[in-house]
Amino acid sequence: MTSKQYLYAALIWSVIIMVVVGIPGNQIPKVSHFIDLLQPDKIVHIGLFAPFSFLWINYFRHKINSIKISVLLVGFIGIVYASTTELLQVYVFIGRSGNFPDAIADFIGAIIGITYFIKKTNKKTKY
User: Fold this and answer.
1) Mean pLDDT of 52-71
2) Sign of the Cα pseudo-torsion (71, 10, 97, 114, in order)
3) C-beta separation of 71 from 118 below 8 A
4) Cα separations in angstroms, 67 against 5, 13, 81, 83, 115
5) Does residue 106 carry a pLDDT above 50?
6) Residue 12 to residues 7, 15, 34, 44, 52: CA-CA distances in angstroms?
7) What is the per-residue pLDDT for 99?
8) Tell me: the pLDDT tens digits for 71-99?
9) pTM for this structure?
10) Are 74 and 121 spatial neighbours (Cβ–Cβ below 8 Å)?
11) Are the C-beta atoms of residues 119 and 52 closer than 8 Å to each other?
12) 34: exposed, middle or buried (C-beta count within 10 Å: 0-12, 13-18, 19+)?
């Protein structure tokens, strides 16, 4: 893929995240009490932010040509974007409530995406 294609993929995924976290609370299907105990929404947060960080690292790696800087930059961007989505849920999106545990799940997802990228890259090159 080219740098531009990585950028488009990362931007599209970022928009998907914003759409998903902006869905009004009454539009989200309710799950059974047993599944509530497992808190599947945290898995959704992790599942949204792992690809987010992976896609953005791929873009910055090609644009900046430094894996280390890309990892640090995407780590920072992940924290800012996750925090922003939670704040938007509190103050902007109707029927949503942002919270700290969701932000932590976002951060964990971002770390998983970064870790996957590093492991995948380490097999090809050392940095």
Assistant:
1) 93
2) negative
3) yes
4) 18, 21, 20, 24, 12
5) yes
6) 9, 5, 34, 17, 10
7) 87
8) 999 999 999 999 999 999 999 988 888 88
9) 0.82
10) no
11) no
12) exposed
Note whether 24 and 92 are within 8 A (CB): no
Q: For 9-31, how does the pLDDT look when each residue is reduced to its tens digit (9 = 90+)?
A: 999 999 999 999 888 865 555 55
What is the rounded CA–CA span in Å between residue 9 and residue 4?
Answer: 9
Identify the H or E element spanning 28: none
Instruction: Quote the tokens at residue 46.
Output: 């992790």
In this structure, are residues 52 and 109 in contact, taking their beta carbons and an 8 Å threshold?
A: yes
The amino acid at 31: V
